[in-house]
Task: inverse folding
């Protein structure tokens, strides 16, 4: 997208400033789990809009279908049966997919210039034509989202319909959601909307209802309203305090420049040793004597 | 002109240069994936995707030939007490004041320690590399292990690259050394001056 190239906040493996001429509003998708009925219309809409067709799988005894995210399935309803209070079964259905972190671990880990970009509206997008297929994004992601294609060895994930959002449309999943569990707008508005929902849930006895916008990744541009905000793990293992792994932070943070500097210094040390101490030569008479 | 002593056979030289060529290609393509400043090295192998595809195969070739080479040179690299004495005088060695140094055998202490650093680091590179080798092996490992492997791989590669910088510089610095690996021979004077115990063994003098 020609215009999109003007509003990039961050670009993978790029050390110079990115084009930030256009400032766009920060957007967010809000997923209200208390309103979700698990109809999977969002999965269908995602396939339709993005022209994706996953392989027909086999049933594994649970409602999750397909069984996992893939290069063809960028969003997936995950069904959890839990008893938060004994004897009171709850069916928690979480629409899984890219969270569009403000501090994206995938982008931090990516070594291919421009394979991952973050737009100024907050969307984190993979540009597969620049992807080299190394899989580093898998190590960076705290939510286990990117999936490798077996066909082309490139990583795929939810784009938050960056193509639709760029022309003022809402993402396909939002468009199709029949219950209003999915809403989309400016991040600010979505937080306000969530506050209303949380107040409502609290009134109805969900005293721990909360917004999931984890600060460990700088907040996300896909947020959840959780009935049990104190226990996000209940929702098919949603991490309580996600963050980029310290290993990845060290590797793509301090190690990258310091180790590169170390190699450069070693080469210079050799060169300057040579021009100061000089080569180790055997004196000529020694050479002749033996 | 002093007489020549055979230091490396044609087989040993070939083995060494296969490792060396594989190392250069693996190091450059690896650096390309490590820091954006080095990404242009990936073009040597045909672009980022080709660098990603070829790097692990090149690394595997390096590993196999390194193991072959290490098993040839193993017995000359055993650390002996004199090596510790030699290392204590590394400052004098660097200042080219070599009088009174313990007499090294085929390898001096610096070369031996470098050998052992490589013997440890290169298998670490192989194991950590397999864990992150897309798309063949990485899908079989959990993500936490891949996270550990990328860091270990980068650290081990750094150690090997630094080691090779030292190795290459030492070959340039100590005159008459490179021909050992290109022609297979060194001068008797070179052997006597730099590796006296080995010189005695070879010449009986």
Result:
């Amino acid at each position: 997208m020609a215009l999109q190239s003007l509003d990039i906040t961050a670009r993978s493996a790029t050390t110079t400033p990115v084009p930030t001429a256009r400032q766009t509003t920060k957007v967010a998708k809000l997923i209200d789990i208390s309103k979700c009925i698990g109809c999977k219309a969002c999965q269908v809409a995602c396939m339709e809009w993005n022209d994706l067709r996953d392989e027909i799988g086999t049933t594994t005894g649970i409602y999750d279908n397909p069984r996992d995210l893939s290069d063809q399935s960028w969003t997936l309803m995950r069904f959890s049966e839990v008893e938060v209070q004994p004897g009171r079964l709850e069916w928690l259905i979480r629409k899984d997919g890219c969270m569009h972190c403000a501090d994206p671990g995938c982008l931090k880990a990516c070594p291919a210039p421009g394979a991952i970009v973050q737009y100024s509206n907050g969307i984190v997008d993979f540009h597969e034509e620049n992807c080299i297929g190394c899989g580093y994004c898998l190590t960076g992601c705290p939510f286990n989202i990117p999936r490798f294609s077996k066909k082309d060895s490139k990583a795929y994930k939810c784009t938050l319909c960056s193509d639709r959002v760029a022309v003022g449309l809402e993402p396909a999943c939002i468009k199709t959601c029949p219950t209003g569990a999915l809403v989309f707008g400016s991040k600010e508005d979505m937080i306000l909307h969530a506050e209303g929902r949380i107040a409502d849930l609290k009134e109805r006895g969900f005293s721990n209802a909360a917004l999931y916008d984890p600060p460990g990744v700088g907040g996300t541009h896909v947020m959840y309203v959780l009935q049990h905000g104190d226990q996000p793990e209940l929702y098919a293992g949603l991490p309580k305090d996600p963050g980029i792994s310290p290993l990845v932070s060290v590797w793509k943070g301090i190690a990258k420049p310091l180790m590169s500097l170390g190699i450069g210094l070693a080469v210079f040390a050799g060169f300057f040793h040579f021009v100061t101490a000089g080569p180790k030569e055997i004196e000529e008479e020694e050479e002749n004597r033996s | 002109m002093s007489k020549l002593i055979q230091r490396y056979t044609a087989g040993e030289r070939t083995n060494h240069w296969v490792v060396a060529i594989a190392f250069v290609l693996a190091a450059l393509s690896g650096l390309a994936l490590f820091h954006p400043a080095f990404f242009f090295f990936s073009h040597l192998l045909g672009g980022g995707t080709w660098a990603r595809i070829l790097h692990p195969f090149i690394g595997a070739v390096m590993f196999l030939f390194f193991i072959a080479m290490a098993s040839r040179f193993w017995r000359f690299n055993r650390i002996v007490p004199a090596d510790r004495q030699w290392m204590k005088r590394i400052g004098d060695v660097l200042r080219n004041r070599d009088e009174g140094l313990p007499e090294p055998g085929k390898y001096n202490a610096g070369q031996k320690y470098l050998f052992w650093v490589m013997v440890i680091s290169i298998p670490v590179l192989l194991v950590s590399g397999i864990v992150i080798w897309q798309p063949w092996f990485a899908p079989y490992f959990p993500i936490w292990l891949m996270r550990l492997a990328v860091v270990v791989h980068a650290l081990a590669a750094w150690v090997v690259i630094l080691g090779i910088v030292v190795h290459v510089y030492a070959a340039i610095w100590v005159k008459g050394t490179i021909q050992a690996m290109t022609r297979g021979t060194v001068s008797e004077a070179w052997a006597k001056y730099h590796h006296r115990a080995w010189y005695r063994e070879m010449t009986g003098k």
Notes: Chain A has eight helices and eleven strands. Chain A has a mean pLDDT of 94.
